Amino acid sequence: MNPVDNKAWPELSWSRWSETADTLHMWTQIVGKTRLALSPLQAHWWNVPLYVSPRGLSTAAMPYGDEMLEIEFDFVSHDLRYRLSSGALLSTPLRTQSVAEFYSEYRRSLAALGVAVQIDSLPCELKTPIRFEDDTQHATYDAEAAHRFWRALVRVDRIFQEFSKGFIGKVSPVHFFWGSFDLAVTRFSGRRAPERPDFDAIMREAYSHEVISAGFWPGNGGFGEAAFYCYAAPMPAGMDQAKIRPAAASYNATLGEFLLKYDDLRAEPSPDDALMEFLESTYDVAANLAKWDRRSLEREA
Questions:
Q1: pLDDT at 6 (0 to 100)
Q2: Cis peptide before 10 (omega within 30 of 0)
Q3: DSSP labels, 71-117
Q4: CA distance linking residue 23 with residue 25, whole number of Å
Q5: What is the pLDDT of residues 89-121, one digit of tens each?
Q6: CA-CA distances (angstroms) from residue 144 to 78, 126, 153, 183?
Q7: CA angle, 218 as apex, 213 and 221 as ends, to 5°?
Q8: Is residue 78 within 8 Å of 94, Cβ to Cβ?
Q9: pLDDT value, residue 87
Q10: Rounded mean pLDDT, 41-53
Q11: Residue 200 banded pLDDT, cuts 50, 70, 90
């Protein structure tokens, strides 16, 4: 990979955009739950995530009756766009408004298109969720911050896809999980994981097989900073003592994951190369310690 200008990696200070991120988190859950309701179940809930698009985040095509429906957050013109294969189009502006207002407008828009879908209005993966129709707490939309967030996702998505090309085993698409609000890509060993009766049904499906997963939190990872992560499930012994690259990356004992802070990446001479180094070195460590059959899972150079 070639060195790049660090300015191509936008500033993403959590303190400057956290309120917009929290609002977007709820908005993406509303749209994401629509995808969950309309799309047939896929392995490990791969029917659920959103995808980075040339203008924002998209559901991709979802079946609706005899037609297909796509809904896209456009972070260039700042609109929520609805497209049906029948040719019907509709858009509403992304602007400062509460989750409750967004949810009401969203339902009106679907009705105007003749789309009827039922979703659970209680957000997922939050300690203190507020139903969408009651949420007047999250009501911030900074268009510039949303655009920076999307530009960061574009760069990360591109490198995650590049990283995936050398793996010929089962590997997920690069996708954006609206529940946890992170971009991720996951590799599988092909072996079943030990049963986890303490997990709920969703988690049991997600971690039914051995995985090594890498991803990007845009600031919501629990420590107030944007960061990249990598973990193995189940975690092999010795992973917490392993050496990884680049030098700024480390193992976080609290989370049980390798971390590379986004600002540390931006400080590297070539952020693109540094991120690839993080992805490759953390995978190498985890796969070797977990005794994956790498010869059958990886494409020969």
A1: 60
A2: no
A3: EEEETTTTEEEEEETTS-EEEEE--S--HHHHHHHHHHHHHHTT---
A4: 5
A5: 999 999 999 999 999 999 999 999 999 999 999
A6: 10, 26, 14, 20
A7: 65
A8: yes
A9: 98
A10: 95
A11: confident
Could you tell me if 130 and 123 are in contact, meaning their C-beta atoms sit under 8 angstroms apart?
yes
Q: How far is the first Cα of the chain from the last one, in angstroms, to the nearest whole number?
A: 15
The residue type at 205: E
**Which residues neighbour 261 within 8 Å (Cβ) at sequence distance 6 or greater?**
225, 226, 227, 228, 248
Give the CB-side neighbour count of residue 61, counting CA atoms within 13 A. Answer: 8
Report whether pLDDT(2) > 50.
no
The SS3 assignment for 185 reads strand
pTM (2 d.p.): 0.95
Half-sphere exposure of 74 (CA within 13 A, CB side): 14
Token pair of 76 as six digits: 């260039």
